[in-house]
Amino acid sequence: MRSFMRIKIYRGKFIAYAVFVVLIGLALGALTCAVLLDQWVGNSRNEAAGAFSRVENTLQYDADRIEAFMQRVYSNSGLVSDIRSFLGNNAEGYLTSRLQGSHYNRPLVSFPDDMKSFLSNGGKGDITQISLHTEQEGNVVSFDSNGNTSFLFRLPNTDETFRETIQKGFVYHKKLSDPNQISRQLGEFRFLVSSDRIFKTVQNDRLDEAAAVSASGDVYLIAGSSRNTEELVRRVVADGRTHGFLSTGFADRAYFVTFNSNAFNYRFVSIVDLASLIRQKANVLLIVFLIVLAAMICVLLLIVYNLREDANFLRRIIISIGRVKTADFTPVNPARYRRNEYGMIARELDDMIHQLDRHIRTNYLLKLKQQETEMKALQHQINPHFLYNTLEVIRSSALVNNADYTSDAIATLGALYREIVKNENIIPLGSELNLLQKYLKIMEFKYPDRFYYQFNVEPALISLPTVKFWLQPLAENFFVHGFNPKSEFNLLIVNGWEEEERFVLEIVDNGNWISDERLAEIRNKLSRSDDAPVDNIGLRNVYTRLHFFYGAGFSMKIDNNEEAGVKISVILSKEAANDVQAADRR
Fold first, then answer.
1. In the chain, what are the domains?
2. Around 44, how many Cα atoms within 13 Å sit in the side-chain half-sphere?
3. Best label site of 193, 325, 363, 553, fewest CB within 10 Å?
4. pLDDT tens across 173-184, in order?
5. If we measure between CA atoms, which residue out of 277, 278, 288, 279 comes closest to residue 47?
6. Which residue has the higher pLDDT, 576 or 133?
7. pTM of the model
């Protein structure tokens, strides 16, 4: 992994891919968890719907049994007579009335026993209390879980026993009419269906928190802690929606669903705490997290593998280019090329280096060997013209072999040396700029696509006389001290303009800064007039030559640029320039 992380483009790609994969993984994980949570909430809603349906069926079954019992009462005259005896009497009066109305040739009918066998199912049914009322009072028959019967007589209708709350159960009211005269009402039956027995059938269901709420607002808790659940249930009832989410804390939510019973006038409320639900399903969520994490790791490993392979080929390409630039054509171990553009480029580049090496060996080296004897014989007589001729021969050979790049470099080098060795020492500034341009062009060959230069010199400065070859050492300082081979944009700019009383020439680059201490030291040494040894020989030499040539009208400044690099300013007064021009004409 470290191999491709050193390359900026692949480092950026890997970071972008990693961020993308992590975001996609988190999004998929969150989406999966949301789908699972929605499914779990749906299951809880279905559980609540099933529980509500079972409660409704049980209540309807009890309602049907009560209706069947009323039909049984009206079809049995003996049972009606016993009910009349029970209605409005106390225990003693009821027993006396039963004995007086009994016949030796007919079985004695007992209204409580008939209710016990038909409705209470031996004390195991849902109906736990039956009361028979007149307008002022009522008598009560109760059945416990063991099937035992108890009676209460002559209780006022306002007694606590008759208060209808959902904590006790559901009360069915049935009018008792005279069978012989339907319009005449004898009293009223009240059948109490126990809430404990009704909702006991759903308490074993997987209900987190559930309750039944009567129309008056009474709450019967089916599942959950009493205080918190009752508070949440009342909030749900006040909310008014049939389902939705409810805030239970800073970041906690609860899902609720309600079912309204139109037949029995109550509301069934089920609440699921999402935090509790998530804790219950933590194992499933952990598995989802591990699957998503494993998928992200696999994708990232695949990305790393591809980036690493491409980076290896790109590094091989860069190394091959560096070998060409340094004329290193030694064979290298063959690489395993991939079947993509990078592999094609790397393979072609290696083939090019191999062919170039063979071409140089068969053409240039052979000719150099042939000339070696002659060069040794003439080494004490060598002169610039022999150098020019030799460079021209090499350039012509490069042209014959279609090496245009090499030909241009040699031609530029030859032109530069031809201008240097000319006898004239005083040349126009335009010619000095041409010398600098040839030198910079050679540096362009050395640093292709990494170095650029630009001249912005006004015509008024072109004809000014100056000493030869002083701009090249200033530019060379940039390549020695300020140039950054790793940067793709190294720039050298020469600006020249005319002001009211002087001419200004600037050499500006975007290389490295000079430290403040070092800059102060250079300025101090340039301003000294003695011959003390200095380490900036080229810069001191330029300063001395120009100062000697132009006199007091010349000055030189060295400063750091604001953003990057160094700026060298050469300032020449117009008076000094005119004196030099006059002397040159003489």
1. 329-380 (no CATH), 431-584 (3.30.565.10)
2. 27
3. 325
4. 999 888 877 778
5. 277
6. 133
7. 0.51
